[in-house]
């Protein structure tokens, strides 16, 4: 390459030199190399010119009058800020100390006098490369910073929307739930939802999406909507699970899914119903005996299987008041200590075993995790739900499509649900929606749903399926009862449950009569009603509940037909 | 992490071996391991003999492979699983989708 070869891109170069002859010589050389030249004869002029014209490179004599080159270099570097403006010192100095001082002042290189054109051109080009590198780096840094800000903003918005959707339930209000979940857990894909059913049972979901960040939050939103919407309408776990699975399967990419445990905790029936797809074992902790029943992952996660292949079978376990359910995410078991050892199931079991005070169990686990890892992790979810007496039955939180029309007050309707329907369809949410068309009944929707649910399951389980509730006298019998229920329902080929609803106006307001008939053999009504009420037993709570909640209960046709009444006063 | 893929002599079986950590960082390489073959093999084998760790995004990648191999009709074997990996596959019930041994 010739010394006179033009530079890649012409630069504006400031030359500060107090010797007029040297200045002329240098200017000529630099111009011939294709650059624009600004000239100054002392440091002060150089700084002023720099501030005004912003040249890209400076050739600076070290020793000049008014302001020397070193001081001028410091000013220029300060004015240049983050941008790299290379300064090449022109010097006849030979001492190392003086040369080092030039670099300390912000100089980037030297050019010894007398000037060599070849070296000067090469140095200008080398410095220009450095200058461009710095400029590119700054540009990319700013771009990354802008993208990052944008991303953070989007995440904040997503989180705000998500919080509204995810926390519309009772997770923070329910006195019987304790949970540990970091504020960042959402962006690790963890999800915890809880809500009451119309009959006062509690549905809880602990989920864990594959992936992190926004994709997980995006999948979590439809899941939360299905959970809350269907729970409030009285749907059971099987239908909610099917809907969630179908929805996630439809919207998520193939490699994304959601591990989840869904449970229904019923104080009235003293049971917990569980479905676990891909989550680590949770536990039902019996306080009286200290026994723990594992809630094992029996299924594939949500969003993997097609609707046809999806398995919605649940397990049912008995619980006494004060018993607890523990659910946890894999973050708990995968908590690692300084040596990369995992916390693991065994250590968790040891915490359970060592505990003597059930109320402290949650704290014990939390402490054990903290002691083990020595530092906080942000993807741990742990939740404890206690079976507590009597959640008051409240009116459901359903939204009514009130048209302002007066409600229907004199009508009747009958349904017959036959074997194929009984196998896979739960008519209760549909019936409840229908009955809540009657404004006067809305106040009592909780009691109404509870009574309907009890009468329907009696008609199905004891009537159509012929199951004996006395099986449920102990835990083994209890499991056996639900095993038989599943088997018999799967094989059902005949039988029916009929539901008759009659609504009539009364002087005071109105009256709804609900009658259920089943195809079963019936039962000895007087004998069953005469049984002493076993308040903490596993069976026989259904009928006493029905008698508490409705004004009139009558059996006929040898126990195959049951009739209840609900009355309401005139609306204000 | 490294991923090696090899087609059997008759061209009917593709074996993908994963060494080291099988996690999100292997996403691209894992896909390339089966997408780069012009001729679609009849069956797939995922060899986890030298896999030290596996996370949930690795499970997602197995689902992608299963989908690529024909979904319900696919033939995907997961072999040489160590006890840690087996635990993860068991919790997610992936033995219902894959032939695991």
Automatic annotation (TrEMBL), chain A:
<dbReference type="GO" id="GO:0016791">
    <property type="term" value="F:phosphatase activity"/>
</dbReference>
<dbReference type="Pfam" id="PF00072">
    <property type="entry name" value="Response_reg"/>
</dbReference>
<dbReference type="GO" id="GO:0000160">
    <property type="term" value="P:phosphorelay signal transduction system"/>
</dbReference>
<dbReference type="InterPro" id="IPR036457">
    <property type="entry name" value="PPM-type-like_dom_sf"/>
</dbReference>
<keyword id="KW-0808">Transferase</keyword>
<dbReference type="InterPro" id="IPR052016">
    <property type="entry name" value="Bact_Sigma-Reg"/>
</dbReference>
<feature type="modified residue" description="4-aspartylphosphate">
    <location>
        <position position="61"/>
    </location>
</feature>
<keyword id="KW-0418">Kinase</keyword>
<keyword id="KW-0597">Phosphoprotein</keyword>
<dbReference type="InterPro" id="IPR036890">
    <property type="entry name" value="HATPase_C_sf"/>
</dbReference>
<dbReference type="Pfam" id="PF07228">
    <property type="entry name" value="SpoIIE"/>
</dbReference>
<dbReference type="InterPro" id="IPR001789">
    <property type="entry name" value="Sig_transdc_resp-reg_receiver"/>
</dbReference>
<keyword id="KW-0378">Hydrolase</keyword>
<dbReference type="InterPro" id="IPR003594">
    <property type="entry name" value="HATPase_dom"/>
</dbReference>
<dbReference type="InterPro" id="IPR011006">
    <property type="entry name" value="CheY-like_superfamily"/>
</dbReference>
<dbReference type="InterPro" id="IPR001932">
    <property type="entry name" value="PPM-type_phosphatase-like_dom"/>
</dbReference>
<feature type="domain" description="Response regulatory">
    <location>
        <begin position="12"/>
        <end position="128"/>
    </location>
</feature>
<dbReference type="GO" id="GO:0016301">
    <property type="term" value="F:kinase activity"/>
</dbReference>
<protein>
    <submittedName>
        <fullName>Histidine kinase-like protein</fullName>
    </submittedName>
</protein>
<dbReference type="Pfam" id="PF13581">
    <property type="entry name" value="HATPase_c_2"/>
</dbReference>
From TrEMBL, chain B:
<dbReference type="InterPro" id="IPR058548">
    <property type="entry name" value="MlaB-like_STAS"/>
</dbReference>
<protein>
    <submittedName>
        <fullName>Anti-anti-sigma factor</fullName>
    </submittedName>
</protein>
<dbReference type="GO" id="GO:0043856">
    <property type="term" value="F:anti-sigma factor antagonist activity"/>
</dbReference>
<dbReference type="InterPro" id="IPR002645">
    <property type="entry name" value="STAS_dom"/>
</dbReference>
<dbReference type="Pfam" id="PF13466">
    <property type="entry name" value="STAS_2"/>
</dbReference>
<feature type="domain" description="STAS">
    <location>
        <begin position="3"/>
        <end position="101"/>
    </location>
</feature>
<dbReference type="InterPro" id="IPR036513">
    <property type="entry name" value="STAS_dom_sf"/>
</dbReference>
